[in-house]
Amino acid sequence: MGYDFNGEEDQSQRKPGPIPAGSSVLVKLTLRKPKFPYQDDHLIGWSQNGMLFLDAEFEVHTGSYTGLKIWERLALPQGMQHAGLSDGQRKACNISGSKIKGILNAIGGIHPKDDSPQAKRKRILNTWFDLDGKMFPVVVGIASEPTESANGKTYWNNTISRIVTPDNPAFKSLMDGGEDITDGPITGKGSGNGRSQSRTAPQHAASPSDDAPPFSYGDDYGQPYPSGVDDVPF
After folding, report:
1. pTM over 0.90
2. In the predicted model, what is the mean pLDDT of residues 20-41?
3. What pLDDT score was predicted for residue 171?
4. Strands (DSSP E) along the chain, which ranges?
């Protein structure tokens, strides 16, 4: 009896990361269980300085960089924090709160300026699980400093610069699987957002590999697995 591989997916033709700064891609959000959860809510992390956050993983869902993952900690809004906050921490809370609101606008198809009762209801979360698994477009940036992984290699990681919302002319194209890849910098030493090179929908959405061991993504993407991320204070 033979072994039939006709039903397996084709190999993906994905580019190595990081993604050039200023590019727009479609991502899928996964909320990871933090190393140190806060009380009974296992999706809320608790940092060493008492800040509460969500451990967010953004995985590129379609296009040239399918499978590339970006990890960020989203600080909960100031009103949800229990520790005293510094000016820098309050700024972090405001930035993350704006991103979460942008995500809700994107997945709800809401214009940011829409203050109708229907729009306001869509910006209310019943549970953090309401965000898990959702897809929306983002503009990526580049970290200001490189990261050194356990294998001694240095990597430049992507960041989430902002969420693309329905008021953006490119929103529908990106939600349909398109991408807008710029010629922006791929290290923190560059400057500017770069010029747009393309906005095309891929013919075949490659399936990412989630079973790779820690740091194996570094060789392909330039972004190591975030080991010990919860130990770093805001």
Report:
1. no
2. 92
3. 98
4. 24-32, 37-38, 41-46, 52-60, 69-75, 135-142, 147-148, 154-155, 158-163, 181-182, 196-198
